[in-house]
Here is the input.
Amino acid sequence: MTQPLVQSVKENLNKRLIFGSIIVGFIIVAGLTSIFWTPYKIDDTSGLRLEPSSLSHLLGTDKLGRDLLSRTMSGALVAVEVGFFAVLIGLVLGLTIGILAGYAQKKSDDAISSTLDILIAFPTLLLAMLVVTARGQSLASAIISIGIGISIIVARLTRQLTKKILATDFALAAKLSGTSRIRVVFLHILPNIWHTILVAVALQFGLAGLAEASLSYLGLGAPPPSASWGSLLQEAQSTIYTSPISAIAPGLSLVVLVIGVNLLADGLRIRFDPQSRQR
Amino acid sequence: MTIQHPFARYLFRRFFVLLLSLVIATPILFILLRIIPGDPSNALLPVGATQEQIDAARHSLGTDVSLISQFFTWIHHLVTFSFGKSLISEASVGSEILQKLVVTVPLTLISFTIAIFVALVSGYVIAFRSRSWYGRLLNNVSQFGIAIPVFWVGLLLIYVFSLRNRIFPAGGFPSEGWHDFPNAVKSLVLPCLTIVLVMSSSLTRYVRSATLDVLDSDYIRTSRALGFSITGSIWRHAIRNAAAPLISILAIELSTTFVGAVVVERVFALPGLGSMLVTGISEHDFPVIQGILFLSTVGVMFVGFFADALQKFLDPRLNRYSQGAIN
Here is the structure.
């Protein structure tokens, strides 16, 4: 009985998928833990200023005496939150627009796809600045703008994949036998495209964290006391000479998250399409 | 009048799309920035201002008239390239932007050009020498590079090259600007290096996969079968075939480089467009924000237009507006 199980696990997993999941899982757990418990409160200024790393403060303290391990952990929560909700917005909006465009006829399809072509070139960070100006500075502004950015990528991909599916014989057969469009979407389109979309969206999860960090670094992300890796880095810039670790810890966390997510996405792609291993 | 030549017809059509998207984008940008919570005149007023003072401030900002006429005032500002006056410094936004471009444009273009050259070489090496130690090294470095936030690279470079070893300044730009040429160049070295390191990594990935696609292609196989060397086949066939898809990526990456410059200016305290924009946003200085975002939008659209035109010129088979029918 165990033999088929081991075999199926082996078939379904590859090194990248495993390492990627471990890294991303670790960061998600660290972030979620910070909701209930951090070594110190994130705005607790009881430590000495700019303490180097020690047993009581593993990553040292910042210039206000706040524990950096606690703040880096809560930064993980911000990154995970932004990644999750931005991807959710991107998926819902992007799949809807993409499938509609996939069904659209010549003129309206042209209109949608050339709009998407123009929008995709518009940098997410500039879009985020627009949203921040219009809505005010908050985590929600960051999430909404990054989500819109992701939805454009998802919409383009979905449109292309939908067209491909609709051109197949089984989609034609479904149409001829009178299956409603909604049923075709759920029976034929989504089951055939979800893995490609999943790989694309997995990559965007990491990029969303990166975009939020840039925004926070510029001072346009969630306002204090929220501790994003970007705002930690901005605070660390003035004290980098005396305490380099305060600039290294949040930056390295961000790099590890993005690399982990890239590995995960790559692993998923190989899992779904074993022949693409070369690339 | 009908235009006969297909390329000219394409250009004409694509230019029409460009104009149309500008006509659509301009009011959207205006409306988005006018629903800012709070009255922009608050920025000008002391606490406890009287009604007359508030009215006077609104009048001087031009926010006391209807949105429609504000919109046309703004269009007038756009056409005359003045973009209105900054609420804080009261200087013309247009002329202030011109001053800032002196920093941002060289930073963006120099870094982008260097990054392309680095990426062409390293992408090619990775594709051809994937089993050698330097091919693997470059491959790993570029995979690491796409995961690094640009401002963190800047911070680390400041730590190594300005604080630990005082080789380059940690930030700032000489007050005489480019008249103080050696110092101006010196202060742009680290910012450029920052952008090049990050941008060349992502460009390397594209060059690598484009090269691999080419090596797999039928025309290279045929060319090899006819007795041409690999290098010969690539020179004869691959460059032109691989260029078209790379150009559309380059167009997007140019905007990414510009955004990188916006962030990097902040890291190195350079008085460029990015610093002006970020300061404008935190001070709610909406003429500044509007002006810079409008110019960036126009820039992005024009780059897209030129990229499409160049692509079509290199590969006339492409027809992006009927792509849906083929796929």
Summary: The radius of gyration of chain B is 24 Å. Chain B touches chain A through 54 residues (CB under 8 Å).
